[in-house]
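Exercise: predict the structure of this protein bound to zinc ion.
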Amino acid sequence: MRRLPIFLCVDVSESMAGEPLMQLQKAMESIVGQLRQDPHALETVHISVIAFAGRAGMIVPLVELMSFYPPRLPLGGGTALGEALDEVMTRIEVEVKKTTAHQRGDWEPIVYLLTDGRPTDRTDSAIRRWRKHFASRAHLIAVTLGKGADTQVLQQLTDDVLSLEGSGGDELARFAQWVTASVAAQSQALDAGSAAPGISLAKAGDAGISLLKAGEGKPPEDDQVVVLTGRCSKSRKPYLLKYQALDMPDVLGSFGGQAATGVYGLEGCYGLEEDYFDWTAERTAPATQVNTNQLEGVAPCPHCGAATTFALGRCDHLMCCDGPGEQTCPWCDMEVNFGPGSSDGFDIGRGLG
Ligand SMILES: [Zn+2]
Ligand SMILES: [Zn+2]
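Solution:
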């Protein structure tokens, strides 16, 4: 039986923290759950998952549907699209069987690339490599989520760029529905021997996904999100504070050390796993600074329930704090004495988003 390899390459950058990441997790479970009910898909479809934030990595190797167990998705800082593409190409080379004189290889692999941001690494050489060596033997469909995605870069990569817009929170459910339908249709067509090479995107509109025509790509809108990481002073576990721009979206600072302007409201504080740091890119430029006066809202610690996640250790890292007094910084182990609080703002480094 020839396999139909499906690579899901998903963006797990910080802007996905909270609800979007949960929705993405659900989307993956739904795609696999639905395809398992389809006899054609069950026979041929094999799925692999590659995740990328500041780093890219394979988190599920190519496996048949019945052996697929939805992974916990990591989260990290950055959007290393170039590295993600290189990882996809490596996996295709390693996992997809080519047709030779002695064996019938796999069907043409399909890559679904989902991203909500602009790349934070170099993408030129990966895009060149894809176009030269892979575009003719694999099908890549890029799907953008929200207005922060860089559709112009994606259009250099593939003609098939789809965009998921809206803010109802059901975008990823529609994504799952559509991926399921398109994979099922392809496996059925292959089984019937009627498959034209490539995959039909015609049904995307039915799922509320629009196909961007050449030249329709837009530059990404400025980052609307400020993310900060801290550690619980009791458990030492990391957490992520996520703030959304409240006004003046057009004057937010760009990366490279300038100060961001505008005001950001708290969206939530999410517990992180230690692997957050493995999935985060090392900084190549100074972090954009944001002043605490620009941030509205304080969240309790998701790990221990302490009243604030906005206390600052002497090493300039954030930690949780439950009131005045002496505490040990979970980052550097130095003692820090918290007073009753000061209203003066201080500057802290922003995450890459
Ligand atoms: Zn805590
Ligand atoms: Zn410290």
